[in-house]
Design a protein that fits this description.
Organism: Gossypium darwinii
Oligomer: single chain
Enzyme class: transferase
Mean pLDDT: 82
Distance between the termini: 132 Å
Helix content: 40-55%
CATH class of the largest domain: Alpha Beta
Number of strands: 10
Number of domains: 2
CATH topology of the largest domain: Spore Coat Polysaccharide Biosynthesis Protein SpsA, Chain A
Keywords: Cell wall biogenesis/degradation, Glycosyltransferase, Golgi apparatus, Membrane, Transferase, Transmembrane, Transmembrane helix
Strand content: 5-15%
CATH architecture of the largest domain: Alpha-Beta Complex
Structural class: alpha/beta
Shape: elongated
Protein name: Hexosyltransferase
CATH superfamily of the largest domain: Spore Coat Polysaccharide Biosynthesis Protein SpsA, Chain A
Pfam families: GAUT_1 (PF25557), Glyco_transf_8 (PF01501)
Low-confidence stretches: 6-14, 39-69
Largest sheet: 7 strands, mixed
Length: about 525
């Protein structure tokens, strides 16, 4: 065989001895050991000894993310652990593992204490102060996983628990609503006592009735349109007195103020006695009872006609015709009271007047209201403060827009407004036949399909397109059911305790009661006799 020339032969490979290879490998192993030992020293803390295998086991068992274990978000990590631990507490209790449930609860309290302390001092949690709690909670959560509280089981049990809790919450809310409504409708003993004593005084003291008649004959202010006329429809003597007194004390010209008060037959004598005995800086007060209004009869007033209907009577007074499906607040008979609906008949009640400010009896006046009578309503009938800063107070929240009659006539996003402090132009009212509009809608709601509750929904329908928005500072609402900003209260001309927590009730909101109570003279002999305090 012919051999290749030297130029075409393969180059000979140089081989490293085995000793060199082993030396290189040894060096690499040593370098790797040094690097790993340094990383272990960096991760370990001098104050807390941490076994390296725990992190891996926890990660496998509880599926805790790197973000949860990050030292940059210890607050979030603690919060997430607490939420998970609470779920495991429920499961542990249902599995009758009370000891483990106790351990979880104790660790939850420890973690919550850390978060609370950090929030109190307004500085973030540090890694050092939270690491022990995070580690101990993580170990407990891993232990929970080992006790076979797997995700599928936990979800199934939690769903059952949630359903049970929802049923309990629904029952509790229903009871709370009923008891709250009962408490709100309660007539305190002191108010009842005051009414009885005043009625006794009225019928037992001829001089009191004589004084009342003389004052009524001499008072020419009642029909004088140059005066500031206010009207209240109420059966609450003390609340009405607070409205009159607060208006008088904050008025620049109290001698120009006339209050027209309408009550019922039961409270008529007591109201007359109270406002005859007491004076309010020269304010004129007229007391009437709606039973004396001859035009107020079932042939003219839809509400009175509805009261004669047996189904309506059953709905409001028996509570048995729909198996309790309708909430109790919708079945309150006060919503059929003429004192509640008399606001829609103001021109008939005061035929000689041109402009009136309507006030509810659960308000307090803290500024001069004479400016209301110079406001230009731009041809509208009703001047009111709008309440649509939140979507809750738009028309679709009060009315049934599934009904074609409502849907075809009213914008669901139209802005709502509030009764309680309203300026009424009675000349425009009569011209527009606003009471007739109210009758139209009231007659079509006999079956309560257009709206359910109160006088505001029919008011929204009646004054739709006829309402002028007033500055919000004229009328501040919510003091009877929610927290109201102190700056709004300070600027408000009229403060409205709308809601169940009236200031004269035990369930009144304590921090708002002084705003109302400062207009009550608790040194008055009658109030002391009836234990007002």
């Amino acid at each position: 065989m012919r051999r290749r020339g030297l130029d075409f032969r393969r180059p000979v490979r140089k081989r490293f001895p085995n000793v060199v290879w082993w030396t290189v490998c040894g060096i690499l192993v040593l370098v790797l050991i040094v690097v790993l030992s340094r990383e272990g020293q960096t991760e370990s803390k001098p104050t807390i000894s941490r076994k390296p295998y725990r992190r891996d086991r926890i990660m496998e068992g509880v599926t805790i993310t790197d973000e949860m274990l990050s030292s940059n978000s210890v607050t979030r990590q603690l919060t997430d652990q607490i939420s998970l631990a609470k779920a495991f507490v429920v499961i542990a209790k249902e599995s009758n593992n009370l000891q483990f449930a106790w351990e979880l609860s104790a660790q939850i309290r420890n973690s919550q204490a850390l978060l609370s302390n950090a929030a109190t001092r307004r500085t973030p949690l540090t890694v050092g102060e939270s690491e022990t709690a995070i580690r101990d909670m993580a170990l407990l959560l891993y232990q929970a996983q080992q006790l076979h509280y797997d995700s599928a089981t936990m979800l199934m049990r939690l769903r059952a628990k949630i359903q049970t809790l929802e049923e309990q919450m629904s029952s509790a809310n229903e009871k709370s609503s009923k008891y709250g409504q009962i408490a709100a409708e309660e007539v305190p003993k002191s108010l009842y006592c005051l009414g009885v004593r005043l009625t006794t005084e009225w019928f037992g003291n001829p001089n009191l009735q004589k004084k009342h008649r003389e004052r009524k004959q001499m008072d020419a202010k009642l029909k004088d349109n140059s005066m500031y006329h206010f009207c209240i429809f109420s059966d609450n003597i003390l609340a009405s007195s607070v409205v009159v007194n607060s208006t008088a004390l904050n008025s620049k010209n109290p001698d120009k103020i006339v209050f027209h008060l309408v009550t019922d037959e039961i409270n008529y004598a007591a109201m007359n006695a109270w406002f005859t005995v007491n004076s309010f800086r020269g304010v004129a007060v007229e007391v009437q009872k709606f039973e004396d209004f001859k035009w107020l009869n079932a042939s003219y007033v839809p509400v009175l006609k509805q009261l004669q209907d047996s189904e309506t009577q059953s709905y409001y007074f028996s509570g048995h015709n729909d198996d309790g499906r309708t909430p109790i607040k919708f079945r309150n008979p006060k919503y059929l009271s003429m004192l509640n609906h008399l606001r829609f008949y103001i021109p008939e009640v005061y035929p000689a007047l041109k402009k009136v400010v309507f006030l509810d009896d659960d308000i307090v006046v803290q500024k001069d209201l004479s400016g209301l009578f110079s406001i230009d309503l731009n041809g509208n009938v009703n001047g009111a403060v709008e309440t649509c800063m939140e979507t809750f107070h738009r028309y679709h929240k009060y009315l049934n827009y599934s009904h074609p009659l409502i849907r075809s006539h009213f914008d669901p996003d139209a802005c709502g407004w509030a009764f309680g402090m309203n300026v009424f132009d009675l000349v425009a009212w009569r011209k527009r036949n606003v009471t007739g509009i109210y009758h139209y809608w009231q007659e079509r709601n006999v079956d309560r399909t257009l709206w359910k509750l109160g006088t505001l929904p029919p008011g929204l329908l009646t004054f739709y397109g006829l309402t002028e928005a007033l500055d919000p500072s004229w009328h501040v609402l919510g003091l009877g059911y929610t927290n109201v900003d102190s700056q709004l209260i300070e600027k408000g001309a009229v403060l409205h305790f709308n809601g169940n927590s009236k200031p004269w009730l035990k369930i009144g909101i304590e921090k708002f009661k002084p705003l109302w109570e400062k207009y009550v003279d608790y040194s008055h002999p009658l109030l002391q006799q009836c234990n007002f305090h």
